Amino acid sequence: SRIVLTDRIHELRYLAGLIAHLREGTSPWAKEKVVEQPEIIARLKQLINEANSDSQSVYPFDFTDKLWDVLKLSKSFDTLRQSFQLLYDQLQTGEFRVLVGANRTSSLAKMLRMQNPNDIVFPRLEMMTCLQLLVEIGVDRFNGELVYRFLQGQYLPNSSDLDPFFLPSMASLESTIERLLPLHFALQSMIMIEGYVRLPKHEIANLAKRLLTHFITSKGTDAFEKEFVYKANMEDIQREEI
């Protein structure tokens, strides 16, 4: 398929499913199934060790983003609980210092920013708490990635250009994920158009904003049905890409 970033759509749908379970107070994991996942705990320990080194980087993805990439593979509550307990143990030492992006708003990001472990309120690791902690870092990861890709692709000059299209930080997780889908489609469309059409530099930011405005008028999954028509001159089409 020539359609880009389709894996992110699958992951957004997975995240939306977790949020639905959180809203309903139900488990996303089969209760009768005990799944041992020592590889996830091993990957988490490796991530913690790397984060403790001097070589860690916050850009484009910080510690919580990398944590999502590991913990999204959890297939049981027990794996998730063990993972967060491991993080709690690290935080309680007062010596665990990791870089967290300034725009990350999850509960874990807030804990990781605190210098004194005595100031941290550690919620009990019950199922819905673990699910909430996981979902929050997933939403942060997607928010951060969207900003990064729009800027890296030079579709918009500043991250503040995206602010009008994101929901405020106090919005519900469900509303936030509903907004992330159309924002992602706008990014996907921008990459596809730029791949096939030579765009004048002054036109790129205007087109990006048109796409963002176009897709956010859809609600949630309605964005899947929304079309965007871009009329290009024949001489601007990059025939070698077709």
TrEMBL record:
Any one GO cellular component localisation term in the record: RZZ complex
Source species, domain of life: Eukaryota
Compartment(s) where it occurs, according to its Swiss-Prot or TrEMBL record: Chromosome, Centromere, Kinetochore
GO BP terms: cell division; mitotic spindle assembly checkpoint signaling; protein localization to kinetochore
Primary residence: nucleus
Keyword 4Fe-4S: no
Annotated Pfam families: Zwilch
InterPro entries for the chain: Zwilch
Keywords for this protein: Cell cycle, Cell division, Centromere, Chromosome, Kinetochore, Mitosis
Keyword Disulfide bond: no
Its job: Essential component of the mitotic checkpoint, which prevents cells from prematurely exiting mitosis. Required for the assembly of the dynein-dynactin and MAD1-MAD2 complexes onto kinetochores. Its function related to the spindle assembly machinery is proposed to depend on its association in the mitotic RZZ complex.
Family classification: Belongs to the ZWILCH family.
PANTHER family: PROTEIN ZWILCH HOMOLOG
Subunit structure: Component of the RZZ complex.
Protein name: Protein zwilch
Species of origin: Meloidogyne javanica
